[in-house]
Write the structure tokens for this entry.
Amino acid sequence: MKNKNTPDERVVYLALKNVFKGPNAEVRQLKAVRKLITKSQQDADVADLIRAYNMDIICSMARTLLTQEIFESTLKAKIHFPEVFDVSPAQSAEREASEAEAAINDANAIKGAVQGYSEDVQNLLSRADIAETESVETCHNPKLPSDQSTRTVPSLFPIYLPLRTQHRILTSVQSTLEDACFDFAQQAMPDILKKKNWDCSEAAELNLWAAEFLQRQSEFSDKADDLGQPLAKLLRSVADIRHTAVHRICISARGLEQFLLSAESFATLLGDASRLRALTELRRNIQQAIEELERNKHVLGSKLRETLKRVAAQRAELDRIEEMAIADMMREDGEYQAFAGKNLEVGALASEVPALVAAAKEDENSSNMDDVDTIEDDSKSS
């Protein structure tokens, strides 16, 4: 039965979020809105919404949200429905733990992929890095206590971009930084190019440039203090950009952001303003995409919590019905037992007892007559 009340805007947004995404988020005509909603009735959330509320009201509210660009931007949706994007302290702690674990896994994956490859270069960077910074493998990795009383729900964090997208970003960053290294060397270190026979930016990979720059730290002494981190750590990160791209290692979105920050710092170190601007713009675009993904995950988490609450209420109601059914069975069985006993007492037993008494008396009289006949026969015989 349709609910005569107007649905909450939040309910409409959560139910129709997947209907009005991409080009569909630009729809404004009421007729087109209705068509898209009707077309999506196979979706459980949409079907529940249509079942519960009037279609005209749903379409009107959806059109209002579309006009306000709520479906188009999770940032605007967050401003409009802040409660949908709320994250509990426990969820924040869980996310931080998963991100920390992902960072360790990323570092170990990169380390494992490059083992045995360019050992001299790798060892040179690793020794310098370990001397100045703590190894990532020693980082604290907090474990959250598991609550056995609740159903295990897969975590949506940490965030990952599709590997195809990540790979294209990192190969682009790698190429940009290799161009920057070559241009810098032409001006400041021409002897390297001559010694290594590197006549173009494609001649040397980024990790080789990192190793060369590490051996010539004096060239960057005037800029090293502005990096915000030890030079060896920055060069280690720059080399890992190449390793991650070449070996197609899947890393978390936070790890990707960190690589972009390292790339910006490296471009600053080389004094390449134009490439720094390009890298900064790329990082901001990636950051916006990641934030959009994050907010969408919060929406999905909110939808799941609402669903689980509804399921819990339904489960509790089913438990109550089950208990009532069992209680009714026991009660009815007891009542019928009492009814059967009463019928037996009042009906069957009451009518049968006199008959049984009469039959017993008849049997007794018959027995007495037989005794008399036996005595008479004995007298005649004597």
Q: What stands out?
A: Residues 9-85 form one domain. Residues 132-149 have pLDDT under 50 and may be disordered. The radius of gyration is 41 Å.
